[in-house]
Specification:
Largest sheet: 5 strands, parallel
CATH topology of the domain at 5-92 and 142-184: Rossmann fold
Structural class: alpha/beta
CATH architecture of the domain at 5-92 and 142-184: 3-Layer(aba) Sandwich
Distance between the termini: 5 Å
Order of helices and strands: EHEHEEHEHEHHHEHH
Radius of gyration: 17 Å
Number of helices: 9
Oligomer: single chain
């Protein structure tokens, strides 16, 4: 089977974007980050219907892509078009530790994320999960583990090759088995 349309799921801090970047480079695929579509200037999120339209456009604009993100209202679009779903289902403490390192670095370096947005300490001092990424991560951890297996059993997703990795080491070991499309000049078959 080929790896041509890959969706990567996981809680914040799991490494979805990092893995997507690595796979896109290795397989010569278009890299699509859902947060980059969703978050407009000044941390304003696109309305769900506009987000769905843009996701539909971007996943039909090219036949080969790797996409990362957990926007549940786009699952029917993205998952239906994907051939492979990678779920980074790491322990909560792994994601929180990674999130702490990533967030501290972004705040300190004032790294631009999407459309001029930057993280601030203010976001993380609030306990509201809609603003505090740490609280959000804790909230979605159990929900993902309960909901994803059930959703993935639905007939409309039976075509997906599902890879569930439970540790960064497991993911890295799998990644090392993926040859570079650049080296072979062809689609990567796995």
């Amino acid at each position: 089977m080929t790896l041509e349309r890959i969706v990567i799921l996981g809680k914040p801090g799991a490494g979805k974007t990092t893995l997507a970047t690595q796979l896109a480079s290795r397989l010569s695929l278009r890299n699509i980050e859902l947060d980059g579509i969703s978050w407009q200037a000044n941390w304003v999120q696109l309305p769900n219907n506009e987000m769905r339209e843009r996701v539909s456009e971007v996943t039909t604009a090219t036949s080969d892509w790797v996409l990362d993100g957990n926007y549940h209202f786009t699952h029917d679009i993205v998952w239906a078009r994907a051939d492979t779903l990678i779920w980074l289902d790491y322990p909560l403490w792994v994601a929180l530790l990674r999130l702490l390192r990533r967030t501290a670095g972004r705040i300190f370096l004032q790294k631009e994320l999407w459309n001029g947005n930057r993280e601030s300490l203010r976001h993380h001092l609030n306990l509201n999960p809609d603003e505090n990424l740490f609280a959000w991560t804790i909230q979605v951890h159990k929900r993902h583990r309960n909901e994803f297996p059930t959703i993935l059993k639905q007939p409309e997703y039976s075509h997906l090759r599902v890879l569930r990795f439970r540790s960064p080491g497991e993911t890295e070991k799998w990644l090392q088995t993926i040859p570079s499309a650049k080296d072979s000049g062809n689609k990567t078959v796995w």
